[in-house]
Amino acid sequence: MRIAICDDEKDFINEVADIIDRFYNSLDLVTYEFLNGSELLKSFRQTGFDIVFLDIEMPGFDGISTARKLRELSENVYIVFLTGHIEYALKGYEVNALRYLTKPASVSDIREVIDHVIKKMSNEKYLWIKNNDGEYRIKYSDIIYIESQNQNVIVYTVSGNYQMRAKLNDLENQLKADGFFRVHRSYMVSLLKVIGIKDRNVKVLGGTFIPISRSKETEFRLALMAFVNREAL
To answer: Would you give the end-to-end CA distance of the chain in angstroms?
Structure first.
């Protein structure tokens, strides 16, 4: 696991790095240290990180701006904001931040974040897709939504779309216990990739609006609320 710590206070970076080294030195964890967002982004394009601890209040290119750029590069990186002012927390919804840690961050808070991500990564599941172009293993967490078209389905992911011959009913049975919801006879969405609801349409990552059947609306809202509460640290 690759962990980046970005803060304009070197002493704080050292504190977080020391906690990680103290409790996780037996695991394959590597930490990278950055004093500003520009350095972090440059390295991210070359290396990529699993977790980024990111100070919000940095001079110049602040943490929120840096996080927006990170999200353009990856939907999977876990962003953890560090801040002395909790009122900044609302900004994190724009970039799907995992959590906010109030500075100075406690040992228990940092460990809770890392343990959560380790668990998520170890429990990753995959959908096996076979079509005329070949065979593909797709992470559940990469799927945005699935559309039924006649005897085929199209699986829309963060990295591209895949068509295969399958029934949406079968995929619903396979995926519904892992954060997916059938919002319409022709569509199933990943609750992880829902970013809004307008009228009777759900907006998913990428800006696509998916229709919600009238009979499914209440159940969907309840399922989404339960999912968000369950995923929150």
So the answer is: 19
